[in-house]
Amino acid sequence: xxxxxxxxxxxxxxxxxxxxxxxxxxxxxxxxxxxxxxxxxxxxxxxxxxxxxxxxxxxxxxxxxxxxxxxxxxxxxxxxxxxxxxxxxxxxxxxxxxxxxxxxxxxxxxxxxxxxxxxxxxxxxxxxxxxxxxxxxxxxxxxxxxxxxxxxxxxxxxxxxxxxxxxxxxxxxxxxxxxxxxxxxxxxxxxxxxxxxxxxxxxxxxxxxxxxxxxxxxxxxxxxxxxxxxxxxxxxxxxxxxxxxxxxxxxxxxxxxxxxxxxxxxxxxxxxxxxxxxxxxxxxxxxxxxxxxxxxxxxxxxxxxxxxxxxxxxxxxxxxxxxxxxxxxxxxxxxxxxxxxxxxxxxxxxxxxxxxxxxxxxxxxxxxxxxxxxxxxxxxxxxxxxxxxxxxxxxxxxxxxxxxxxxxxxxxxxxxxxxxxxxxxxxxxxxxxxxxxxxxxxxxxxxxxxxxxxxxxxxxxxxxxxxxxxxxxxxxxxxxxxxxxxxxxxxxxxxxxxxxxxxxxxxxxxxxxxxxxxxxxxxxxxxxxxxxxxxxxxxxxxxxxxxxxxxxxxxxxxxxxxxxxxxxxxxxxxxxxxxxxxxxxxxxxxxxxxxxxxxxxxxxxxxxxxxxxxxxxxxxxxxxxxxxxxxxxxxxxxxxxxxxxxxxxxxxxxxxxxxxxxxxxxxxxxxxxxxxxxxxxxxxxxxxxxxxxxxxxxxxxxxxxxxxxxxxxxxxxxxxxxxxxxxxxxxxxxxxxxxxxxxxxxxxxxxxxxxxx
Length: 757
Hints:
single chain; 5-stranded mixed barrel; 28 helices; disordered N terminus
């Protein structure tokens, strides 16, 4: 130690060396300083963060004497031989020390304090933060220590609550998995029942473990050691039971009322329940593999599950206007009476609202219009949540609007379905191709060799069915539907003869509607291939094509019109009679029979179609010329209505898209429109009144058609409603042309009541 009264050089750094390599520090300095420190514990100090002031024992503050060798570079900790007070307190004869020396030398004087005891999952023990002080000086701060030996009761409680009650303990003991599974099962019951009073609270589970685990156990190691011995005597010692975990029996939560899987269109979809108001997936969630997205029947999902249907019905009834709502109060009683009425429809994949309206009509003898209900106003959890997942299980999107999800992922879903469906197609095609055609040489197997197992593709229904480059019906019958398994998912497919570019193929599609449309289109193409020469003849000899093309020029080209006329002729000669006779052919015999029946009618049907379309396009051209361009201001409203009617009757592809029974009436509808234009000048007010009534009915039709389109469905009753409107226009604006059947606004409204959206 250096006396400040004598000039001295600054002390060397601990790692400073002489020229010969030896340390400048005496080898025995540390032991000397430790020995001196034992008698100078009250003269220690800790330098403050800013400045050169030191905090000493019992809150005393001082500075290093200016003449000290430590003044220029003061250490963090020091001891002083003396503390002298003049104008301030000075420390003299100083030396730097290490704080850990104090913990050893002053073990009888230091004080220890512990804070923040907590469970450490990785270490499997309770830890705390330790603070060690000497005369108020912080010797150690923030040191993590094992808290078990320090406070065994508290450490044990924290161990039980975190490790066992909360499951924060990596342990392979059987009771851990059993208890966690049982708690999760009861938590699912709560999610289904939408209440948090089924599973007992954590305190009850803590008491279960507290009564069985000894007081000496406060860490993972001690617990495993005890469990090894205790488990031999009673292996079920720490196994929780349903009776222990359930506050009440929850009898209303059954598998029938809250199933874990829902069968839709023959496919099983997993269901998940969550009771978390405000969460995106609150309520019931249907997990939908991407490949099956287009197969989910939206109407069936409106019914949710039996356990949630009563609440959904009650919420729907509460959205009724006041005058209608009075007829269904008290709502709970009405719901109870409605449920038996609706049971027969729950699994029919029919929309909920029409069934509810019909049940209310039977129950109350009152009318409840469907649009009086407001499904958008009911709580979010009372609508099915759809979770779309990729083949690897990743969530692509979720939401309660199935239409929006299909708009976003519909194409990807069709592609995914096609990829899965054709997984074995290449193998199957290869198996059907002779070895020599593939450039391979077949090597005879030894006589002793076992027979080869059939390829997986040969056992796959899709691989057996699908064909590429079809030129004739040289394949087997097409089933209406097939089921196949991909990635552990049971999928349903609809086989169809489809057009792929310039070729035909047999494929399995993902929806019935898509398959029906594709099959019809495929049959068109196959008929054209089989009757190639006859089709060529008709393409050159369609009656009146040149004149029709002139009238059609504002809509499309002559070639487009020619294709449309031929498609309509094929429809009328072959497909329409087949549909009337039981359906489109799905085997070779049925196709050949249809071909023979229609061959003789083909030319006549083509001439008939051309005659009808020729008359219609002549009137179309005349009307369009009158209402295009500049029209009198008083005509604007009527002209707008007539243009809208024209666009709905004549558009690209209208000939084959219009059902034959209504295509025959198309000249009448357009002639009526032509007469309306001729008479408009003197009947503006009368025309406005009649047009307003038709417009009201037409807009109702457009709304219902859009609703059906969002669901990917159609309704023959709505189709009839649409053409009844055209007959109504004939009766209102050109009575002399006569209607096909009696028609009026009331009759059309009655037809609208038959539409189920």
